[in-house]
Design the sequence.
């Protein structure tokens, strides 16, 4: 054997002894998204005087309104660079009509016009609460409209199928009457998707794993035929300080962990853990609102605590591969619920401190 052949064999032999560690469940990448609420377009009652004055620190760097393609492109750049992979747009179907001119859906239209939209995937959260409830009479038209969006190349998928989230499975069940009727409607949606050349639809519902701790029972929603569960916000999670509207944000963290744990232990369907990044809706409450009617607030939220909660959600997803989605999805409340206090948008007063938590939480913890 020539010296050159010997050296080559030696190198190959040594290389075979060096093992490249396979990616394990504990370090596999996650896909983090956030809800996008478009209350900031056109003539809106969400930009209250109290929000503009007492809570002016929440004003995004682009201003209170987000109603141009340029601002949408700016948001996409910021969100993608900040560690977010997708938005779930709150999508509305008004009971009063005027669906095509409802400003609540304007942001989705702007997103679809954005030149850089390939940086962020999207899906819909059907906001079927009071004023926007949907039922059997709406279903054929809704299915048709959703199908067009499902075909968008940037639409988020779960199990290879476009994902859609139902905000209130309770309202949908009330509208259809029985779990069997809801299941038939969801099955029809899936069948229509297949007829349109799609592999189907993954339908999620926002719910709690009750009847534990007084939560709504989840069994009726399982019977409705949903594919997976998630939440919108868990503003009531965690131990409460008695006789006080103000609550410590730190208490929300174990409260969220208890919900995630209960889903893993009590619900066989996949679950997308939800992280509430803040809750303080005083800008939308009247100053003279009686204390009994005021919503609890978490005035001490901080980037450090938000990062901790996101990091714990990542740990849960990696530790529960059979209960999380295969895509390892996590949802944050929210990108821009600035009126309710759950927001990641960079602001004129705080900069990108809260958005930065998303990327930081995905990095390994370094020793001090």
Sequence:
């Amino acid at each position: 054997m020539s010296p050159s052949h010997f050296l080559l064999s030696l190198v190959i032999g040594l290389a075979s002894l060096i093992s490249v560690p396979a990616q394990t469940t504990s370090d596999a990448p996650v896909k983090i998204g956030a809800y996008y609420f478009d209350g900031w377009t056109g003539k809106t009652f969400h930009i209250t005087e109290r929000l503009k004055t007492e809570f002016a620190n929440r004003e995004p760097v682009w201003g209170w309104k987000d109603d141009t393609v340029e601002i949408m492109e700016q948001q996409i750049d910021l969100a993608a660079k900040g560690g977010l992979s997708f938005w779930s747009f709150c999508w509305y179907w008004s009971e009063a009509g005027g669906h095509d001119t409802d400003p609540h859906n304007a942001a989705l239209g702007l997103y679809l016009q954005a030149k850089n939209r390939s940086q962020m995937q999207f899906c819909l959260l059907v906001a079927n609460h009071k004023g926007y409830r949907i039922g059997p009479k709406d279903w054929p038209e809704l299915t048709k409209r959703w199908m067009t969006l499902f075909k968008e190349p940037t639409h988020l998928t779960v199990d290879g199928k476009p994902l859609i989230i139902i905000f209130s499975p309770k309202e949908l069940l009330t509208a259809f009457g029985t779990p069997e009727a809801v299941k038939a409607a969801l099955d029809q949606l899936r069948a229509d998707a297949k007829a349109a050349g799609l592999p189907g639809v993954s339908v999620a519902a926002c719910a709690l794993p009750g009847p534990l701790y007084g939560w709504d029972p989840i069994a009726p929603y399982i019977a409705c035929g949903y594919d997976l569960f998630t939440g919108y916000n868990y503003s009531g999670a965690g131990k409460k300080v008695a006789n006080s509207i103000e609550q410590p944000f730190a208490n929300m963290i174990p409260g969220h962990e208890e919900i995630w744990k209960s889903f893993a232990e009590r619900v066989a369907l996949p679950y997308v853990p939800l992280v509430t990044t803040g809750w303080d809706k005083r800008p939308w409450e009247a100053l003279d609102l009686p204390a009994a009617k005021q919503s609890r607030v978490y005035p001490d939220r901080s980037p450090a605590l938000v990062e901790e909660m996101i990091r714990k959600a990542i740990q849960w997803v990696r530790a529960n591969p059979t209960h999380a989605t295969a895509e390892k999805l996590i949802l944050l409340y929210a990108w821009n619920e600035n009126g309710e206090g759950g927001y990641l948008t960079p602001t004129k007063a705080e900069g990108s401190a809260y958005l930065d938590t998303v990327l930081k939480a995905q990095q390994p913890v370094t020793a001090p």
